Amino acid sequence: MKTFGGRGPLRVPRDKIVHYLLNADHPKGGPKARFFLSFGFDPAMPGVMAGALIEHFNQNPGVLLPETPTAGERMVVEGPLNSPDSRHPHVRSIWQRDEDPMAWRLITAVPLVKR
Prior knowledge:
It holds the Pfam family DUF6883. This protein is α+β, with helices and mostly antiparallel strands. It is built from three helices and six strands, in the order ββαααββββ. The longest helix is centred in the middle third of the chain and has 14 residues, at about 45-60. The relative contact order is 0.23. The model is unreliable at about 1-5 (pLDDT under 50).
């Protein structure tokens, strides 16, 4: 594994934000959504969260995980996420390289307990 700050073209699918990360009614993602909503993120403004996640990738160190038979190369990034209410929670975001070997696609983001 290699640790380094992230750089590269990034893709944050709008549906991932609107229908999962900020959907309090999602059967699996509901608790996660309530966490992000409590920091001022709004499903009506998905670009705000997308921008914060891109900034999170670019400003925090990441750990590169090797490619597996079922998944492309992944990057795990941990650190503060700039939030609309300025409290900046600590989160882990996971990104994957798929068909475009130069681009990273957001897989998920999860809350972390601040150490």
